[in-house]
Every structure is written in C-alpha cells, then in structure tokens.
Amino acid sequence: MVQIDDIHAAAARLDGHLLRTPCVESRTLSQLTGCQVFLKFENLQYTASFKERGACNKLAQLTPEERARGVIAMSAGNHAQGVAYHAQRLGLRAVIVMPRFTPGVKVERTRGFGAEVVLHGDTLDEARAHARALAAQQGLVFVHPYDDEAIVAGQGTVALEMLADVPDLDTLVIAVGGGGLIAGMATVAKALKPGIEVVGVQTERFPAMVNAIKGTHHPQGSSTIAEGIAVGTPGDVNVPIVRERVDDLLLVDEGDIEQAIVMLLEIEKTLVEGAGAAGLAALLKHPKRFAGRRVGLVLCGGNIDPMLLASIIERGMVRAGRLARIAVNSRDVPGNLARITALVAEAGANIDEVHHQRAFTLLAAQNVEIELVLQTRGHAHVQQVIDTLNAAGFVAHHQ
Length: 399
What we know:
Layout: H1 4-14, E1 23-25, H2 27-33, E2 36-40, H3 51-60, H4 64-69, E3 71-74, H5 78-90, E4 94-98, H6 104-112, E5 116-119, H7 124-138, E6 141-142, H8 149-165, E7 171-175, H9 180-192, E8 197-203, H10 208-214, H11 238-245, E9 248-252, H12 254-267, H13 278-285, H14 287-290, E10 294-298, H15 306-319, E11 323-331, H16 336-346, E12 350-357, E13 367-375, H17 379-391, E14 395-398
Parallel strand pairs: 2-10, 3-4, 3-6, 4-5, 7-8, 7-10, 8-9
Antiparallel strand pairs: 1-2, 11-13, 11-14, 12-13
Helix pairs in contact: 1-3, 1-8, 3-5, 3-8, 5-6, 8-9, 9-11, 12-13, 12-15
C-alpha cells in the first residue's frame, strides 16, 4: 500500500518538472456555499490536468532498459496528454491508444506532444485490450492511468502542496474515477493531519467506487459530462487505500456538475471540465454536510470540448432565468407584434428569437401564439415582462 514516504519521494522527483499550482480561497464561493472554499488550480498545468504528476513520477522511475523500449498508455483524455508530454520531455517513445470516438482536438493535442496515436475500438475496454496487446508485441512499458502505485504516489503530491499552503484545511473533497488521485491525496492527508476528513465524489452515472466501498448496487450509465471520472471499474491498488483512508463518498448528478462549471467560469473566471467541477458540485448538493468547514477542492482538469461548454453555459443561463422562453397569445392583426416587442423593450428585456405559431396551436383561427426567447436579468425580471404584457391585454405565460 502506498505510504507518505512514497509521495515525498515523488514530490522530489517532480520538483521543477511541473507547475506548483496555487491553492487560494474563493470568497464568493465561500459565501454561496456556507463553508470556506480553497481551490487547487490543477487546470493550470501545462496539459491542463493533474494527470501529469502520476505520469511524470512513473516515467522518471523507469530503468535505462525500459526507457529504451518506450511506453504505451490507453486514454481518451488527460492521462494521454500527461504521458505524451513527459515522454517527449524525457526523450522516450510514447504510443497512445485512444478509442475511435475520441474528439479530434484531443487526438491532435496528444500527437502534438510527439506521441504515436493509435485509434482502436469503440469502447475504453477495447482500446485497453489493444494497448495491452501492443505492449506485449513491441515490448513497451504499459502506463496505467490509475491502477499503479507510482501513478498514485505522483497524484498524492497535490495534497502535499495544498496542506503546505493551507495547513488548517479540515476537509478535502476530491473527484473519484479509478481512484488514483483520492488514494494518493488521502494517504498524505491522514499521515499529516489524522483528523482531516477526506470525501470522494462520483457522478450518479458512474458510481463504481461507491459500489465497491459501500456494497451498493447503483446502476451504471453510459455517458456523463464528467468523462474524466467515467470509470467502470476502480483500480485494485486504490480500493483498499480508499477503504482505509477515505471517510465518505458522495454522488452528484449532471445538473450539479453543469451548475458548478458555470459558477467557476463566472465567479472565478476559470475553466474546468466536468470532473474538475465535481467537488464544487458536491458542496452545492450537500451544503449542510460541509457548513462551516474549511474545504479544499481540486480543480483537477480544464480540458472540455468547446461545443459542450457552449451548451452548458446556455443551459445555465436558462436555469438562472437569464434566458427565458415565453408565449404570448394575440389577435392575428397587423401591428400587434410591434406592440408586443415594444412592451418587452419597455420592460428592459432583449429579444433573442421570435416564432409565430399559427398551425400548431389550439387557439381560435384568428389568433396567433407568438413564442419569444428573451435575455433577462433573472426569474423576477421574466415575471415582470409577463405582467407588463398581461396588463396591456395580451395573454402571456412561461413556456
């Protein structure tokens, strides 16, 4: 089992080879969540994720004979880039096997670090099996994303830095996929501060570690916006460490993660991927659980597809009432649409879209339903617009 000495040794190996990311308080998030929130900005690493730590620690310990053979990894995301970048830095051959569905931007970024990318399989399991086969055929060293003590020790250095910067943290909230990050961080936390509480967070769609530790049988989904922690089977190295050193595991849903991504973008001006927002999502979903605590969150990665981000931002605006859809019933006569738009403008809202509904409506034939998508200041403002229209003799309501 990985111990604190392994992680101190990893920190010495990593020194000067990656960014010592800041860990700072977010006053606004602290006010909103009811606990004191400290953020560890691992999304600022060169490959935008903590995965570099484990990869660098693993590669730094290869024997000269293993270095000559080169390394292979299977990953659709951050592990791929971490291994590729540090292999390039150390002058090693790196082969990365990625499933065929991997977004093109991730494939190109990994190639940009000098790795040979092999696209194979429609699932992570198929890609992993192919990587194992290639490792055997070509004599490459397989670098597992989480089920490896050297990887776990590298990831644990995150907690060494956090507790050095903010020694009086009393709670760590950490995203859990295969368990490499939380296993390493919990090892540090319990060795340095036995009283600290370590809490893991998984998505409701991928609750593998929760099921393994708690003996539950939550069903597994097929996709999540937190694809970085979408792991079907936790690491064998990590399960006993989590069982011994982690105090609790919580589940969050997709909406909690979406809300957390938008809040970090708006409040902290920092971009995180779904897995990087899981910790804040847990604080939003379970506020009483963390009330009054000094909580450390790891923003573990910032690699998110721009189209997904655009969709998440738009949905966040809808949830906040800043983008709203209303329907206005009116007589279908010239000038009424102009009157409606004028009233909306008077109420201080901006019209994003207008749609006339004549055929698909249950209204009388001489009436029309006008659907408006509005930019507003929030839910109260939307209601004010509706009240203004109703007072002018129209029939307006939320859609």
